[in-house]
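hey all, quick one before standup. I had two proteins in the batch that finished overnight and I want to keep them in one place so we stop losing track of which output belongs to which input. First protein below, input sequence then structure tokens straight from the run.
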Amino acid sequence: MKLLEIEPSIRKKMLSLFKPFIKYIVFILLCMLFSLAISMVIPLISKKIMDDGLLKNNFDIILKFSLISIFLIILQRIINMLEAGFRTHINSHMSYNLSKDAFKHLLKQEIQFFNNSNTAEIINNINTDVSNISRISDRTTFYIFTEFFRVIGGLTGLFIINWRLTILVVCSIPFRYMFVRLLAKQRNKIFEQYIEDMGRYYSWYGDTIGGIREVKLWGLDRVKIGQFIKKQRNLIKSNIKMNITDSANEFSESFMMEFVVNAIYILGGYMVCKDDLTIGGLFAFITYSAYVTGPIFAILNIGYSFASIIPSAKRLFNFMDMKSEDFAKKGQAIDKSTLKGKIKFENVSFGYDKNKTILKNINFEINSGEKVAIIGSNGSGKSSIINLILRFYKPDAGRILLDDVNIEDLNLKDYRSLISVVSQDVYLFDTTIKENINLSLPVADSEVHRAAKESGADKFIDRLSEKYDYSVGENGSKLSGGEKQKVAVARGLVRDSKILILDEATSNYDVESEIELCEYIKENYTDKTVIVITHKPEILKIMDTIYVLQKGEIVGRGSHDELYRDNISYREAVSKCSSDERQVV
């Protein structure tokens, strides 16, 4: 009967974690076997010292076998140190491999996964699961492979010394097994609830810190502290239950071992008094009994330990099995030298929720080198079009073509390398301005400076003491909104891609910088496709074509002058934007 049922797929994946370390596992097993052999000899040496040395007053025997015992113990410690080194190597690299694979898989997840998850929760889950799973490379796990021989050797020694006392030792094992089995099931249930509560707690925690501005503005600190206490109370209860279960397991193990030892003293002492057993034989028997009960109890404890490993293994492996963006798909080759950058939407419909359609039968075409703007009210589908072009989502119906090739048939990584994107929601990494522009890619400093100049970022960068080596802080916290946006635009320009997408990219720009950027795009992007989401007349006037979206449908198409004259929705949107800008000024 198994202590804990493990799904075959989970068991197979856990065993596969040892595959890269076969050589080290062999070394560990050899070390454990050598250590085991020494352990089996030492009780016999102790028996010899006791019976033929101490009891017979033979100092030569005492000295000779004591020196042999010291040598064997030193040799055993050296072997144990080598074994510990190999195990540490496996444990560290297994943890590293799990973390690396989880991180790589995390980066490949679809955008929707991050929209539905909390960053703090994701980090906590991965770290907790990796830490727990790595425990399978602890020394106790290797007992399964080597302690079988220790048990056989110990039983052999016990039967040789006294078969009646051996029955006493063997009878203790079923009681220990039943108790551990009960505790393992209980701990598995408690731990599953614990990691579920922990996930919810970190999700709430990340959400609270992410909304710290609102917490302060609305005075929600007492409310949040109350929520913290309530959520922590559940974690504390689960933690107390696990500690009680651990204590019960430790108590049962120590009690059973002490009970067996004292029972051996009583019965063995009786036999010594009756001259049925020597004193050395009694002490050797006690030592051998530990070779039997210790390994068996340790093996039983592996099942108990796995009660907290298996829930983490299930969660992490389920995460690793989640569908991700297919970067490995070869797809049709992209020849950048002949690429035109023509984008075409054919009968595209899409919705983030199956019950709510955002885009309805969208048809339009953006020719190579054309400057196109998309305008519409909030919720009209502007960002959805961009998300579809970037392949963050797939259309529910219809298709999107790049140079008459379905974008789904192109290698995802190569396809995205054709596009530079600057969005309104700017994110800057906690590093220097230079690295936020070149994104640590091999870009010449001259190109970084050029992009900064064209985006207008060079003006404030030149005023900084550290210039391009200035650290911007977490998400650009040391920069103003306009400065962050200029760095992000420089990032988009330095890539010099065939397709440039600006999603409200100049919403925090001053008028002068915005006009300069528009002129630069107009003069230098004649052979590139530019897609802009904006309501600003200064940008709309230089666009070749403007599409007006309303409730997921295209309700207008033309130049700025044509639409301003003929399309009421467009005229109202542009007029409102101009009015808002005048009020700000």
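OK second protein, same deal, sequence then tokens:
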Amino acid sequence: MSQAPDNQGARRVVGVDVGGTFTDLFVLDETSSRVDIVKVPSTRGEESVGFMNGIARVLAADGANASDASSLATIIHGTTVGTNALLERKVARTGLITTRGFRDVLEMRRRDRPQTWGLRGGFDPLIPRDARLEVDERVLADGSVHTPVDLEQVRKAAAALLAQGCEAVCVFFINTYANPANERAAVAAVRAVWPNAHVTSAAEVLPEIREFERASTASLNAALQPVVGRYLERLDGDLRDHGFDGELLIVQSNGGVMSRQTACELPVKTALSGPAAGVIACAAMATAAGYPDVITGDIGGTSFDVSLIAGGRAALAAQTSIAFGMVVRSPMIQIETIGAGGGSIASVDVGGMLQVGPESAGSVPGPACYGRGNQRPTVTDANVLLGRIAAERPLGGGLLGALDVQKAREAIRRFVAEPLGMDVLQAAEAILTVANAKMAGAMRLVSIEKGHDPRQFAYMPFGGGGGLHVCDMMREVGVATGIVPRYPGVTSALGCVMADMRHDAVQTLNQPLAALDFAQLRALRSDLAGRCRQRLDFAGVRFEGVREEIALDMLYQGQTHTVAVPLQAQALDAAATQAAFEATYRAEFGRVLDGIPIRVMNLRYALVGVRPKFDLTLLAPQGEGRTEPLGEQPVYVKGQWVQALRYDRLRLPVGHRITGPAIFEQADTTVWLDPGFEASVDRLGNLILRPL
């Protein structure tokens, strides 16, 4: 980081993304328009420690007191604490109170299986069966109360769950999307006896039809409340102890941000928030560079997260699964994740096949070349041995010290080369080949399988390892243009700074379009707008403006799956709604189904608080720059050594062109330019790659 002469009057915004290996920080001084980046090792299991270490580095680099965070105005955090807790099943013991006869909804799911064609497989819900208790109550699908809730049974169920040691509880009653009266009464009764605030109402979290999805989302939210709540409260306390008096905001999986208090209440909305922030940054940077259609690929220490951006907008999915059976129904950026990152471990299975991932060495102990005790080879070890990463100038700007090439060589020789009867360098290339094939498959999943031709898209890699594999990905998938952002290793942290505040709400309607009362629909839209506005106002954040997004989930009578039909507030009438549905359906499926009645399932509403826009020209190269190479580096490519010129990437001037083989070095990543590719620097500092 560069030195600042004075902190007086500084208004600094800090984006923080906690990854599996590194915690990345992007710092914007809104007063001086200066940009800085920081990387520190993540502390798995104690993520707040790495977070605070990064904040201390930000302050110390400016010559400020490392324990005085008063110069920081806003901190926006993309967190994986909730996602990791679900994946590792390290959540709070949670109970469920539900309608009699429905305790097994979480276990029955949609009768799907972990392996579609396998004969074996099982699923254990996060809430065990003995902690899923039933009470007498019933609301019918039309909203009428068939059986009032027995509150005495509810109180006894809550007492029984407390006796089991439950720290959190979810109340989930059938059909409460149509009438939440019974569930509200039960929740009030539980809150009166529950010793903490960790009480979740399924009707409050997701008032939407489909019982399993609502039960799953609400249950996961309940299980995460103590975990995420403790983490964020500890983090907020540490920041306050260091003099921070600004706003701590949390990135949501939909790419927006929310207040810390809202995140503690609705932690399920933080799932995959780190990768979502990276996609938001990529959408802005790629569009500004003239490439509104891009496939993004975040290669971190543990995973490869890929998403598709069309027309400058990231695609939102209505739901996702965090591992098998744990369904979260909440708007989130569509991201496909596979276990293929820099720390992914390479091994030979019992059938003699080379495998890469999903197990990862993470940050501790890390790849074998870190010298921290891991003896098994990783993707990073292969890149180091082949010369793509210079051992004396490792990723992280020297943060880890010199890497141990011999330990990388020994790990690959022992666990890959000898079992396969290969030369150690060939084995290292084989590791990269397998990893690249897995990542290319994920790219095809979000493009070809969604009806998009990847050849019509550019590829934008980010994360610490994205630049090392960009040419391989372009070649594998057939992409003609690669865009490596100015600071690939901290793109998700940059996305935290760029993200707007956003709150989503949904309400099931489940009515034929012909019978829909649009006056009531407009009133419902106003009610959802008021609820979302309260959350925006509660955050205490300044906005440049506020915009709303309205959509109806619609389908033809007899269908199961809906299409999301965007509408304007002034167009909430029957004729405009039918025209919008037919246009959306035709665009999706190529035709409409004349004569079949149309049904409206859900109203979706989002209120977006537009935060001050980030000036991307701040990332552009400054000054005269330097075009001379730093030296040469031998790199093993397709069975032979080649001499690659090394460049200080951040000092290359706009318009400069370089032909591979070449290595671009910077503190947060390394970019490998394969022979047969050319790179140039655009006006925003991006590296634009094309095959020769």
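Flagging for whoever picks this up: The first helix runs from residue 47 to 61. The chain has 16 helices and 35 strands.
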